[in-house]
Write a structure and sequence with these properties.
single chain; about 80 residues; mainly beta; 5-stranded antiparallel sheet; about 5% helix
Length: about 80
């Protein structure tokens, strides 16, 4: 699932606005690669359910990929002409 970091407090608790409109809570221990999240960052994450409540886990920052020549990588659909 993808979303955007909406809220983070000093204790490491936060909320992700899911792309589907859901509000998914997370804690700092659920962030992969020991990254510190910032407001507005786009993230990808898994959802675990505990007693019908959704929680984010395996949260990772979505970064724009670049090729080794320094340019942005194009997807297959961007390279094909109509």
């Amino acid at each position: 699932m993808t979303g955007m970091v909406k809220k983070i407090d000093v204790q490491g608790f936060g909320i992700i606005d899911g792309r589907d409109g859901s509000k998914v809570p997370f804690i700092s221990s659920d962030v992969m690669n020991r990254r510190v999240l910032e407001l507005g960052q786009k993230v990808i994450f898994s959802v675990r359910r505990v007693k019908d409540q959704a929680f984010a886990e395996n949260v990772m920052v979505m970064e724009k990929r670049h090729n080794q020549c320094g340019g942005a990588r194009q997807t297959v659909s961007e390279t094909r002409k109509p």
